[in-house]
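Z., the sequence and structure:
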Amino acid sequence: MKISREEVRHVALLARLALGPQEEEAFTEQLNEILTYMEKLNELNTDAIEPTVHAVEVPPPFRGDQVRNQADVDALMRNAPERDSTFFKVPKIIE
């Protein structure tokens, strides 16, 4: 798959980049090299490989959700001028 200078100009326009002729040529060459490498990677047979497999068994980095310190709502709301159950009641500011 080849990328043309017109496509590079179009991408530069979308990205709001002002490229000179040398930059257009350089980006065209670099993007073509990347696409050539990607085509090589597409030739690999990955049928027997499961997606997102790790070489080493990695435990999930997450822990279970546990409540460790339950807030005392009455103590927190004690100084509230007005409240509605467990919420602060405030005056309406937008009509």
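The chain is about 40% helix and 5% strand. The longest strand covers residues 83-84.

Let me know what you think.
H.
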